[in-house]
């Protein structure tokens, strides 16, 4: 077995997943070749003045993979290791994610190679506004809609929207989603990715005739996705026995009080000072004997080095790309279902679509309506993937989700005459 313990690039993983899905669906070769590459990739320099009067220049990217079904759509991340390959791979996943959810968007992704913890708030704002100036001609509510990702948040999106609006001399909330509700954001957007992970976990347990009430759950990554998924799973009766952040985790075999864990944490120490019976390292959390494992932290968490040691009955991906190709093969051989990221964490882009609609129509939905609409969209998408899974005897859940996405993207290409 090949060793994939080192970080595989997102673009290589995305292309391999695409190639594997082609065993189950017939797509014209010309469309396949187009889908293996982004339509456009923009690289920009982003100079800013530091608080001490010095100047630094950062590098930013925006990959626009495919827009046959609608405007490009995807997050902006600020991380020191952001590079062009990562942005391309993530934009490919966004194309599939939007298609699985049957949203009228294509895939985009971008970011700046910067450690946001090295920036003051004023420097962060200046960086964001300058980046918006540099990419302003490439984005827009009908062209490419941005959203928050790792290292960015609702305030970042508000600054992007404001700067874009200045440049176009028109208030344009639809250029970015994930904004604060006071400037056109949607209620329920921040919790949506975690809510969708929990919803798909519930549907998967029902599919396998497993009882979620009393099921044990381990969540790697107690950020926005993991924490909100944990809260909802606990509300539905599951026992969340372990959670972690970048510095490590905590464990209680009898189940943690998730709301108390949230209250004990802060922005840098997510699991905080919660008085748990045990501590657990991130790597060890992945191999706990639990009913459900949710890798919601980073990519390439599950690899050839630890896949044989994973004891979870079901894996539902909360992060983007947490499972390497080789680990996927191990789980398939062992009969451990892996519900893929492009379905499970698609609540974020789905509620972003709701926000985009609200901005266009200048109408605000209640959080109850948002959650009800999200529930309907997630269960419809689940049903479509189940059909593809059952129609292809040896397909994995990931390959089934790709079949749904590729079928829709291909139909759009052919209908438009591409």
UniProtKB/TrEMBL annotation:
Signal peptide: none annotated. SMART domains: ELFV_dehydrog (SM00839). The record marks 149 as: Important for catalysis. GO terms for molecular function: glutamate dehydrogenase (NAD+) activity. SUPFAM superfamilies: Aminoacid dehydrogenase-like, N-terminal domain (SSF53223), NAD(P)-binding Rossmann-fold domains (SSF51735). Transmembrane segments: none annotated. Keywords: Oxidoreductase. Residues 186-417 form the Glutamate/phenylalanine/leucine/valine/L-tryptophan dehydrogenase C-terminal domain. The keyword Oxidoreductase applies. It comes from the Archaea. GO terms for biological process: L-glutamate catabolic process. Homohexamer. Belongs to the Glu/Leu/Phe/Val dehydrogenases family. This is Glutamate dehydrogenase. It comes from Halarchaeum acidiphilum MH1-52-1.
């Amino acid at each position: 077995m090949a060793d994939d313990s080192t970080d595989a690039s997102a673009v290589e993983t995305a292309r391999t997943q695409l190639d594997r899905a082609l065993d189950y669906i017939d797509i014209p070769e010309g469309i396949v070749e187009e889908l293996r590459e982004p339509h456009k990739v923009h690289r920009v320099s982003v100079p800013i003045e530091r608080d001490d009067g010095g100047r630094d220049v950062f590098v930013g990217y925006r990959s626009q993979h495919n827009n046959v079904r609608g405007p490009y759509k995807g997050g902006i991340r600020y991380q020191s290791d952001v590079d062009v390959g990562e942005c391309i791979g993530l934009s490919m996943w966004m194309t599939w994610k939007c298609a699985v959810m049957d949203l009228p968007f294509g895939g985009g992704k971008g970011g700046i190679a910067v450690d946001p913890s090295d920036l003051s708030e004023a420097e962060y704002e200046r960086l964001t506004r300058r980046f918006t100036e540099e990419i302003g001609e490439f984005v827009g509510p009908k062209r490419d809609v941005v959203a928050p990702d790792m290292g960015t948040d609702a305030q970042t999106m508000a600054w992007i929207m404001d700067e874009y609006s200045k440049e176009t001399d028109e208030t344009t909330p639809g250029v970015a989603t994930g904004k604060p509700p006071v400037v056109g954001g949607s209620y329920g957007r921040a919790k949506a990715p975690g809510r969708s992970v929990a919803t798909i976990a519930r549907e998967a347990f029902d599919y396998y005739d497993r009882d979620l009430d009393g099921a044990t759950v381990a969540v790697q990554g107690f950020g926005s996705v993991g924490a909100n998924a944990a809260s909802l799973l606990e509300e539905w009766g599951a026992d969340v026995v372990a959670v972690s952040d970048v510095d490590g985790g905590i464990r209680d075999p009898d189940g943690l009080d998730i709301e108390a864990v949230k209250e004990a944490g802060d922005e840098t120490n997510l699991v905080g000072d919660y008085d748990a019976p045990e501590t657990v390292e991130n790597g060890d959390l992945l191999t706990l004997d639990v009913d459900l494992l949710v890798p919601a932290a980073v990519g390439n968490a599950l690899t050839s080095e630890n896949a044989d040691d994973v004891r979870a009955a079901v894996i539902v991906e909360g992060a983007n790309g947490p499972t390497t190709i080789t680990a996927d093969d191990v789980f398939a051989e062992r009969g451990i279902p892996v519900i893929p990221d492009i379905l499970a964490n698609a609540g974020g882009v789905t509620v972003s679509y709701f926000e985009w609609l609200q901005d266009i129509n200048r109408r605000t939905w209640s959080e109850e309506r948002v959650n009800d609409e999200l529930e309907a969209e997630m269960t419809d998408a689940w049903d479509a993937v189940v059909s593809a899974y059952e129609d292809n005897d040896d397909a994995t859940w990931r390959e089934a989700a790709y079949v749904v996405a590729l079928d829709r993207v291909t139909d759009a290409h052919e209908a438009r005459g591409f």
